[in-house]
Design brief:
By secondary structure, the protein is an alpha/beta fold. It has helices at 35-38, 49-66, 72-79, 83-96, 103-108, 111-120, 129-133, 171-182, 194-197, 229-241, 280-283, 310-316, 332-340, 361-369, 377-381; strands at 7-8, 18-23, 68-71, 122-123, 138-140, 153-156, 159-162, 187-188, 190-193, 211-215, 218-223, 246-253, 268-272, 275-278, 291-297, 300-307, 322-325, 347-350, 353-357, 373-376, 393-397, 414-418. The protein is globular. 48% of the residues are buried.
Amino acid sequence: MTQNQKCTLNIQSETGKLEAVLIHYPGPEVENMTPRNAQRALYNDILNLSIARKEYDQLRGVLQKTSQVYEVSDLLARLLEVDELKESLVRNICETEQVTGYIDFLMEQPAPVLTKILIEGLPLRVSTLTDFLREEYYALKPLYNFYFTRDSSAIIGKNALVCKMANSVRLRESLIMDAIFRSDLFFQTHPINAYHLSPDNPLVKVEGGDILVIRDDVLLIGNGTRTSTQGIDLIVQEFCKTGSGRKHVVVQQLPESPESFIHLDMVFTMLDTNKAMVYKPLIMSSSPYQTVHMQIDDGKVTKISAASGILSLLRKLGIDLEPIICGGKSDDWDQEREQWHSGANFLALAPGKILSYARNIHTLEELSKNGFEVVTANEVIRNQFDIHSARKCVITIEGSELPRGGGGPRCMTMPLRRE
């Protein structure tokens, strides 16, 4: 696909061969924080950017071997070359973030400079006593979390859902993604904006890390701190509108703590058409967190019922998944520790060909026992391992800094098209 050809978005599963994906290369925005505001940025600590980038280079290198890779900053820079799109986005951002006094300054900036400002942040212009006494350095805060491109949008079928983020510090990510999808410059899609559909309902929250497209008629959605029941109701309402026949939404409640349970894809991800990585204490053991089955017939919710877990409910829907245990079967401590470091957060490049962090050794051992060949990202990038001819494999990227942001390979990628 050439740069000028539009990509038709289409996601009907979690494991179909990845053909196009959206990423954001972490930049200075990651370091544009202090320990004092790290918590507001949704971080526990400040990442070492130079190491994080070396690790991210491995992720990007593997993706470039297997699919068409789009970078947010490239798309944003091209969009900002179009005057009316530039004005619309700048105005939208400034009005939403209540800094309309900066509109003229931002409009004067060339597209590459403005792209950096919108992602890396804009320092406050101190011209009043009020500004001087504010404990705030930025007029536009840096987008610290933007390298987790999974969250601000999700592709369901051929539709792009622009998500309504749980934390205001991430709102601009959604505004940028909405502008990219609506620009009609890059993708063929019908964008659905959760903000526009619920302008007066602050209870609606939805993030892409909680949305898994299991089959064209089955959505699996997490209900926790980042995706509310009201947000799920909104997705169901939109999901109902497309096509006829029967559809299913499977909802899994998530604990509010620890914070490593931030999204469903931190405890459950698809590895193959018949295998899933699971965090056993939540997905397979009896827990107080409900699984709910919503059945939709010809555009209407016809039944809502409790189920006895994700795996048994999916089996009833004809999807029989063999669970592979995050952290291995033998030790609860290993399971807990490796889940904390995104040990259940896998990205499938194709059925049975998956991406993971190298640090979660007990999870990798469990995969090896289940027939997955463990190889490094550098072996793939240097053509020492042929991913296309391989059967089942797990490709590992180094992960000392990236996981500290709170996510793994699935969090850092937003698939646009799968075979």
